[in-house]
Structures are given as C-alpha cells and as structure tokens.
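Module 6 notes. Inverse folding takes a fixed backbone as the condition and produces residue identities as the prediction. Think of it as a translation problem where the source language is geometry and the target language is the twenty amino acids. Below is one complete input and output pair. Work through it position by position during the lab.
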C-alpha cells in the first residue's frame, strides 16, 4: 500500500477502487493474524464529538501496531479557548506523526489538512464517516465473499454515514439505495460524486419509499434519526422517520440471506427494533469490531510499517 504513504483521508472519494480493495485485503489479513505489522509512530486523536467505537478502535489499532496515542481532548487544550485551527494544526504537525479528527464541519478538517504536513484522517464530520464505511464494506465482504454486484439499502436520515456509504458502495461495485423522508436526503454533491465513480456500472438510487428500496436487498443499514448536534430535533423527527424503522416487516422484504448493519450507538425501538438488532440477520457486532481492523490497515498503509 505504498500508494497511500503520507496521504490524508478526508473522504472516501480520496481513494481509488483498487486502494479500497487492498485496504480490505490487508484488514482481513491483520484480523486473521496472517499478517503482523509494526509501526512505532504517534497518533493524535482530536475529537470534538463524543466517541466510543472510533476512539477505542483507533487507540487499540495503534497500540497493536506498536505505536503511541495521545488523546487531545479539546476541553483541555487551547482549542477550547479559541486558538485558530491553523495555529493548532501547525503546532501538532511538529509533535505527531498522524492525526485523526472527529469534528462537526468538514471545512475545519480541510483546514487542518492544509496547514499540517502530517497525514490527517477523517474520524467523522457532519459530511462523511469514511472509516466507518470501510468497516462496513469489510463486514459485507466477510459475509458474502465479495461486495461486487450486491445491493445495500440504507433507510433513515441522509446523514454523513449515508454519504460515505454511497461513495463506498460505488468504489466496490455495489448498488446502493438510500430511502429518506422528504427534506432529509443526502448531499447532492456526494450523490454526484458516487454516480461519477460508478460510471453507470452500478446504481445509486434515492427514494422516499423505504419498502420499495428494501425489496431484494442483500444488506439493510440504518443509523440514528438525529445525529450528534441535532438532539433538539429528535422529538420532531420521530413521527417523520417512523416508516423508516428497520423491523421484522421491513426485513422480510429483503433477500432471505440479507444482513443488517448499524454503525451504533442504536436507539432501540426507534430506527431499529430490538428483535432485529439481536436477531440472526444482524452483523452489528462484527461490524463494530471491524472498525479496529480497517483502521489498523489504514494507519499502517499511511505511516508505513514493517
């Protein structure tokens, strides 16, 4: 993976189809311990949003590679006192080997990348969640042996996960259907990027009909109806999103061997029912574990490892 050496990952669109496939292959080998890598580097985590899976998976991945991690909580750094992003970026560049950022605005991430010479990884913004989707694709590949030719249906809010799923599916040759209420569609710019990647070889479909989108799907995916920063809208969104709940009825419309994914945390009884997330079709816990394996592959590829 020399092609990724020293590069930023701000969006899944930064990767080619071949690079995604090679990352998934490396993650598979690391997970099975067929491949063992060492990387004595320092990763900084600058997270302005709460995190369980992203924080822990990046930390464990870096430790298992033999590196170190510094948790740069904004509340105990000068970021919380208004230090300009570009100033923080230039200072951290002098200390760290790589930086993973979890924040609200994609523009803030891009400013860091512009001012820091070290690689910057998008650990989640309001626009995209690329590391999550790499783990999703690994989970699909583990289940079906390939991603190519399958159909993934995402139901719910057209948020950062939906955006990255469209790009990720396009890169690995999967059809993707995104079903949202009116007014909650994914980014038009991201839709156009995904369609350009597919080059008409696979489908990128937007709809407001959750049942039609689910028919025959191989993968059903959802996320919370109100993302971080939108908590005040949660009660108003509830009745609007109710037809987009993944429940036994919606699951029955998918392929009989379909799997169910959720990036977590889940609000059981809202976007997904308890019986579905705990049922035989769920691969949610494998999906969560795979965050660590794909991020280990990503860190090793960007930093170089022995």
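Target side of the pair, the amino acids:
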């Amino acid at each position: 993976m020399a092609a990724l050496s020293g590069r930023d990952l701000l969006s899944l669109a930064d990767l080619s189809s071949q690079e995604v496939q090679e990352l998934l292959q490396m993650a598979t080998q690391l997970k099975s311990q067929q491949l063992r890598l060492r990387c004595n580097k320092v990763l900084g985590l600058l997270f302005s949003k709460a995190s369980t899976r992203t924080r822990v998976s990046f930390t464990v991945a870096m430790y298992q590679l033999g590196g170190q991690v510094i948790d740069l909580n904004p509340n105990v750094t000068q970021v919380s006192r208004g230090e300009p992003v570009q100033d923080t970026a230039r200072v951290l560049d002098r200390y760290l080997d790589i930086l993973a950022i979890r924040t609200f605005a994609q523009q803030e991430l891009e400013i860091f990348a512009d001012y820091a010479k070290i690689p910057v990884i998008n650990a989640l913004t309001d626009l995209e969640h690329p590391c999550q989707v790499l783990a999703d694709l690994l989970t699909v590949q583990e289940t079906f042996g390939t991603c190519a030719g399958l159909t993934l249906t995402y139901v719910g809010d057209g948020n950062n996960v939906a955006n990255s799923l469209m790009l990720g599916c396009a890169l690995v040759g999967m059809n993707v259907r995104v079903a949202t209420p009116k007014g909650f569609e994914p980014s038009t710019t991201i839709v156009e990027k995904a369609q350009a990647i597919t080059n008409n070889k696979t489908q990128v479909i937007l709809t407001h009909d959750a049942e039609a989108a689910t028919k025959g799907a191989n993968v059903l995916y959802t996320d919370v109806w109100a993302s971080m920063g939108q908590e005040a809208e949660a009660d108003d969104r509830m009745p609007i999103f109710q037809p987009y709940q993944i429940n036994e009825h919606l699951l029955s419309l998918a392929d009989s061997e379909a799997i169910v994914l959720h990036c977590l945390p889940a609000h059981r009884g809202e976007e997904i029912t308890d019986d579905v997330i705990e049922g035989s079709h769920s691969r949610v816990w494998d999906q969560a574990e795979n965050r660590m394996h794909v991020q280990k592959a990503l860190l090793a590829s960007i930093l170089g490892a022995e």
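Reference fact for the lab report: The domain at 2-128+291-303 is CATH 3.40.50.1370 (Rossmann fold).
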